[in-house]
């Protein structure tokens, strides 16, 4: 049984009595807060702080959404590359020559076998064409035909 003037506090899931001033302190704080809500300047400053917090929260949400969009784009690109690779094929590291070809195509935007032959100083364009086709099969390059020429660009 509780005596008048005592408060309850939860300790280890059992209610125990505490000092009688704690409740009075909480009531006093509540009344002071209630009075401050009658002051229009106080309310205006609270509204301003809330507005600032909302702006900051919206900015954070905008950044999160942008990162989620970027992540979705990357997941889509990975899925496309995995589709092109087909079942049982794994991504392989590119040789130095293939890295040079990819760098050239990236710099040029698009390139055909003749462009690669000239850039890498091959004697014939068969070697350049074979390497470009291999990079296409690996999903590194996209292939587009224009008449008799085949052009390659970086995969997106």
Radius of gyration: 35 Å
Arithmetic mean of pLDDT: 83
The CATH class of the domain at 96-154 is identified as Mainly Alpha
Helix content: 55-70%
Report the β-strand fraction as a percent range: 15-25%
Looking at CATH, the homologous superfamily of the domain at 96-154 is Winged helix-like DNA-binding domain superfamily/Winged helix DNA-binding domain
Low-confidence stretches: 11-17
Record field, number of beta strands? 5
Task: Describe the model.
The strands form two sheets. Strands 3-5-4 form a three-stranded antiparallel beta sheet. A two-stranded antiparallel ribbon has the order 1-2. The protein is 62% helix and 15% strand. It has five helices and five strands. Helix 4 packs across helix 5. Among the domains are: 7-36; 96-154, Winged helix-like DNA-binding domain superfamily/Winged helix DNA-binding domain (Arc Repressor Mutant, subunit A). The termini are far apart. It has helices spanning 21-36, 40-85, 96-108, 113-120, 125-137; strands spanning 7-11, 14-18, 111-112, 141-146, 149-154. A hairpin with a 2-residue loop joins strand 4 and strand 5. The protein is of the alpha+beta class and 156 residues long. Residues 11-17 have low confidence and may be disordered.
């Amino acid at each position: 049984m509780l005596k008048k003037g005592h408060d309850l506090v939860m300790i280890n899931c059992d209610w125990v009595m505490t000092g009688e001033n704690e409740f009075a302190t909480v009531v006093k704080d509540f009344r002071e807060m209630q009075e401050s809500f009658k002051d229009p300047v106080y309310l205006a400053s609270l509204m301003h702080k809330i507005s600032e917090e909302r702006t900051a929260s919206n900015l954070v949400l905008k950044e999160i959404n942008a990162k989620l969009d970027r992540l979705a784009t990357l997941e889509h690109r990975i899925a496309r590359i995995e589709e092109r690779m087909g079942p049982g094929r794994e991504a392989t590291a590119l040789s130095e020559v293939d890295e040079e070809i990819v760098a050239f195509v990236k710099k040029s935007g698009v390139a055909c076998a003749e462009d690669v032959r000239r850039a890498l100083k091959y004697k014939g364009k068969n070697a350049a064409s074979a390497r470009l086709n291999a990079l296409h099969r690996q999903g590194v390059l996209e292939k587009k035909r224009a008449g008799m020429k085949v052009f390659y660009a970086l995969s997106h």
